[in-house]
Design goal:
Chain lengths: 306, 277
């Protein structure tokens, strides 16, 4: 158990170092003249020179990378020149909005996806099953930027039930979170169905039924619990999908989170902010997957003692 | 053939995809209208059946361009970009997976760590960052898409190599003097073909989504090109008075993605039931 945790911690650390190298390569090496890119357009030559010295851009690449890593570890991601304050602070101010949106979407995903999958599995090859499969296939095929626009058209423009943009109270959260949740919900529904069907064919389920357990108890207590294990991994991986999906969803609904910030920052050529968001979102992803793996060992003793 | 007939998903998905591909390829013959030429007198004409003359079957956009022509020509762009990206991603991924699996050691470690690192970024964020640095040309777009997709193939092929390498028949072939190249060509690649095919068709859907998503955000194809994602973005400003602008390209994207997903699922069930999640 301890060896497993140590190995996973080590892997996560290596991945994070790799993340920093990749960001360094994309934003510092590929552009050729990063100082120009990291400063607002038309910055005076003296400022370019000063930044060149500060970033050590006359030094060999590996020294530049060392300096980059040191400032990142110290939380110095540079100045956002769109907001004229430290990039990290600008990004962190937007984190709560994104967290609120992704958590709501995640809750929707679990609350809709799991029951849909269970229904399809226990009513296999009936109308319920086919209806849930069709829903799931649609959910995976509708592009979220189109779904969002169509939801806004229907519920915002035509019916006038819900606001189509902005941030304030739960009504403004409804359309963005449904838009964001559609794809992972479909995925979770399909996965729940297939993994539950497999488990319902197992011996211990037959034993449970034979000793007279009620069907709800067999399905919910014995089968679903075991089906949750692969589901947990997928949910962990969906954090990445949600963070990525938030980029588009937030842009559609003018939701003031990290996703909208990164798109705005690109158009503003505010690279310190882009760099901060890249590193932050990758770190969130790595940490959450580490937590999922730890949770795994709690849920599945085979891993703990294996 | 009879096995394919028992997989209705392959048939339905394939038919949907084929219809879109044929319609896009035949765009110049299906419509005479110019997808790029604005006509300000004809702005925002609704589709046929919604109160307009039959000249514009799917209506016109905010610049008076024929939407049917734009959707069909846009399909050519989207499909070619996505196919190129999938082919590139598969090529890179297979090559990397083969070398990692066969050579092993440090190279293997390096490649697999690289895959972990890349998977830590939401694809669209990575794509956005790269496009922002290298610019929004079609070539850059294909490069970004391919870069986002190689990991899947590399992992799959590597895993297959590791399994197949240990089998008796490979051992036998090696004893008989077969070199690495011959092993790859005769024994390993044929055994990885099925999963690659399955991955490719599902990934095609992802690529279409990603390309139109980037174009939607203004980071992919640029105006006045008739890209589906761009058309959606332009249509968003006219939701209240001209719903068809955003509806038509959205249906086109959904059809392609639906077709490719069904095809991918069907192929997976047909070729490799073990891949079923």
């Amino acid at each position: 158990m301890r060896a497993y945790l140590v190995r996973r911690l080590w892997q996560s650390a290596v991945t994070l170092v790799g993340v920093s190298i990749l960001v360094f390569v994309i934003l510092r090496v590929i552009p050729g003249d990063p100082a120009k890119m990291l400063l607002p357009e038309g910055a005076p030559q003296a400022a370019v020179e000063a930044l060149n010295r500060h970033l050590g851009l006359r030094e060999p690449l590996w020294i530049q990378y060392g300096l980059f890593l040191r400032s990142v570890v110290q939380g110095d991601f540079g100045q956002s020149f769109q907001y004229r304050s430290p990039a990290l602070r600008v990004v962190i101010e937007r984190v709560p909005a994104t967290v609120q949106l992704t958590l709501t979407a995640m809750a929707l995903t679990v609350l809709a996806g799991v029951p849909l999958g269970v229904l399809a599995a226990v009513r296999q090859r009936t109308g319920w099953d086919y209806a849930s499969t069709v829903l799931a296939v649609l959910g995976q095929s509708l592009p979220n930027f189109w779904l969002g626009i169509m939801l806004a058209l229907l519920f915002g423009v035509t019916l006038r039930w819900l606001p189509t943009s902005g941030f304030g109270g739960w009504p403004s959260l409804v359309l963005p979170s449904i838009t964001l949740a559609a794809f992972p919900t479909a995925l979770v529904a399909r996965l729940t169905r297939s993994s539950l069907i497999e488990i319902l064919g197992q011996e211990y389920i037959r034993t449970g039924r034979a000793k007279g357990l009620g069907e709800p108890r067999v399905v919910l207590r014995h089968a679903l619990r075991n089906a949750m294990i692969p589901l947990l991994t997928v949910l962990g991986l969906q954090i990445g999908t949600l963070l990525g999906g938030a980029v588009i969803t937030e842009s559609i609904f003018a939701w003031p989170g990290m996703g909208k910030l990164v798109v705005d920052a690109i158009f503003f050529r505010d690279f310190p902010v882009v760099q901060t968001i890249l590193i932050l979102s990758a770190t969130i992803f790595v940490v959450i997957n580490l937590l999922v793996d730890v949770l795994y060992t709690v849920l599945d003793p085979r891993i703990r003692y294996g | 053939m009879s096995r394919i007939a028992r997989q209705p998903m392959i048939l339905v998905g394939g038919l949907i995809l084929a219809a879109v591909v044929v319609a896009s390829a035949a765009a110049p013959w299906l419509t005479r209208a110019d997808p790029l030429k604005p006509s300000f007198a004809q702005r925002l004409k609704p589709p046929q059946g919604f109160g307009a003359a039959a000249v514009y079957p799917l209506g016109t956009d905010n610049l008076g361009r024929d939407i049917l022509a734009r959707v069909l020509h846009g399909g050519r762009l989207s499909l070619v970009l996505a196919v190129t990206a999938v082919a590139l991603a598969a090529g890179i991924g297979v090559a990397v997976g083969l070398s990692a699996g066969l050579i092993g050691g440090r190279l293997d470690d390096l490649v697999m760590r690289l895959a972990d690192v890349q998977l830590a970024f939401p694809v669209i964020m990575l794509a956005i960052a790269i496009v922002a640095v290298v610019g929004t040309s079609a070539a850059a777009l294909v490069g970004v898409l391919a870069l986002s997709g190689w990991v899947l193939y590399a992992r799959t092929v590597r895993a297959a190599v590791l399994t197949i390498r240990e089998t008796d028949y490979v051992e036998a072939a090696r004893t008989l003097g077969a070199g690495n190249l011959r092993l790859i060509a005769r024994h390993i690649l044929p055994n990885t073909l099925a999963p690659i095919l399955v991955l490719g068709s599902s990934q095609f859907a992802t690529m279409v989504l990603l390309e139109s998503g980037l174009s939607f955000l203004g980071l992919g194809l640029q105006p006045p090109q008739p890209s589906w994602g761009l058309m959606l973005a332009e249509g968003r400003d006219y939701l209240s008075n001209a719903w068809w602008l955003a509806t038509v390209p959205g249906i086109a994207i959904s059809l392609v993605v639906l077709g490719a997903n069904l095809l991918g699922d069907g192929l997976r069930d047909l070729l490799d039931p073990r891949l079923r999640q």
